[in-house]
Design goal:
By secondary structure, the protein is mainly alpha-helical. The chain has one domain (4-183, 198-384): MFS general substrate transporter like domains (Growth Hormone, Chain: A), CATH 1.20.1250.20. The protein is built from 14 helices and no strands. The chain has helices at 4-17, 26-32, 37-65, 67-86, 91-122, 129-158, 160-178, 199-209, 211-240, 248-257, 260-272, 275-295, 301-324, 332-384. α1 (4-17) packs parallel to α6 (129-158), α1 packs antiparallel against α7 (160-178) and α3 (37-65) packs across α14 (332-384). The longest helix is centred in the C-terminal third of the chain and has 53 residues, at 332-384. It starts with a helix and ends in a 7-residue tail after the last helix. The relative contact order is 0.16.
């Protein structure tokens, strides 16, 4: 069977799953409903804690009983989220949405990458994983660009609620396509199936034996956490600078568009630049850029956001590919889930500091705190990676 069709179905699922015009005005919509920055951070923590608790169990379920089921669950809960948000007025409504989003994300995070890699592996094309993952992310950003441009116009003409109905429709199409996926046969390095109780032990053993993998993944987690707080709070940041809401869609489209080149070219860039140089350079851009966002409260700091988003486009396909080329298909979703688990754990820790400094020094103080975290990790990475990560 030609499992490459799964790749195209995943492209379509990602496109409609991210055709979310609600995101362009989400934080303003939440603020309009009485949500403060600290409350939003609390929902981010609920989201992250949910993923931390469910990430590994859902990864094991995906490896044991199928990755497709987990992807379908993610799309279904996505539909539920937007229906609730349309009528949300209290903090606990938003908390429920964060919980459902966490369940859906934990269900699909390892499953989607595992299904993609094993679909390619079944056709002998696993070396193109970074290329396909970059394109998958490109479909994400293309949908986000379209949603951003249309979302700001719809919000200006028809109010915020229409954006949520359109977002629900896109999620519903994603759900329908996910039902058409075909589960690929898993090619394992061993003929003996791994018992459920052994999954976590075997995964931890893998990470203990592969220090380079741990360091590369940790780098992706730190930059991913930093980027998360740019994605979640850029609306408040540029509103503090006095940017009119009418330009929010254009700004959102630009920051997603700038991630496209890195994702599309990541498979080539990793062959031109060493992993150590690529990762340390990205960490430096994040550290310096976030410091500028804290210190420079003017329109020139918007250019820095663009630079950070451009650099971030390279890191995810490279980090995820570095992991998947070194793991066995029988535990692919489980081990990949550890990557998401680590990311969400870091988001929780960083989120507490971000919320604390934002409540005292507004959004600018929050970005200054994240810059400090990135800078500390950059020093650690440079000192630890010299003889560990292959060139």
């Amino acid at each position: 069977m030609n499992y490459i069709q799964n790749v195209w179905k995943l492209y379509a699922i990602r496109f409609f799953h991210n055709l979310i015009p609600a995101y362009v005005i989400e934080r303003l919509f939440w603020e309009q409903r009485g949500m403060t920055i600290q409350m939003v951070v609390y929902t981010e923590i609920i989201y992250a804690v949910t993923i931390v608790l469910l990430e590994i169990p859902t990864g094991i379920i995906a490896d044991k009983w199928g990755r497709k089921k987990m992807i379908v669950i993610n799309a279904f809960f996505g539909c539920c989220e937007f229906l609730i948000l349309l009528f949300a007025t209290e903090f606990w409504h938003f908390a429920i949405v964060a919980f459902l989003a966490g369940v859906g994300c934990s269900a699909s995070s390892g499953s989607e990458n595992a299904l993609l890699y094993d679909s390619l592996l079944s056709n002998g094309e696993q070396q193109s994983f970074e290329k396909c993952l970059g394109r998958l992310n490109a479909y994400d950003f293309s949908a986000a660009i379209l949603a951003a441009l249309s979302g700001s116009l719809m919000a200006g003409w028809f109010g915020f609620e229409l954006n949520y109905w359109v977002s629900f429709a896109g999620m519903l199409v994603s759900l329908c396509i996910s039902l058409l996926l075909v589960e690929p046969g898993v090619k394992s390095k061993t003929d003996n199936p791994v018992a459920v109780k052994e999954y976590v032990t075997a995964s931890l053993h893998f990470f203990r034996k592969n220090q380079a993998v741990c360091l590369v993944l940790l780098s992706g987690m730190v930059t991913g956490a930093a980027l998360n707080f740019i994605d979640e709070f850029w609306q408040l940041y540029i509103s503090r600078l006095g940017v009119p809401v009418i330009y929010f869609g254009l700004f959102s489209a630009v920051i997603f568009f700038l991630r496209l080149p890195g994702n599309i070219l990541a498979h080539r860039i990793k062959n031109m630049i060493s992993y150590r140089m690529l990762i340390s350079g990205t960490l430096f851009i994040f550290t310096a850029g976030l410091l500028v966002l804290c210190a420079v409260k003017g329109y020139t700091s918007l250019v820095v956001i663009f630079l950070i988003c451009t650099a971030s486009g390279i890191i995810e396909p490279v980090v995820t590919g570095y992991l998947h080329h070194r793991i066995d298909s029988s535990m692919r979703a489980t081990i990949d889930s550890f990557q998401s688990l680590g990311l969400r754990t870091i988001i929780i820790i960083v989120g507490l500091g971000f919320g604390f400094f934002s409540s005292r020094y507004d959004i600018f103080g929050g970005y200054g705190f994240i810059s400090f975290i990135c800078g500390v990790f950059l020093v650690y990475f440079l000192s630890s990676s010299k003889y560990v990560i292959e060139e």
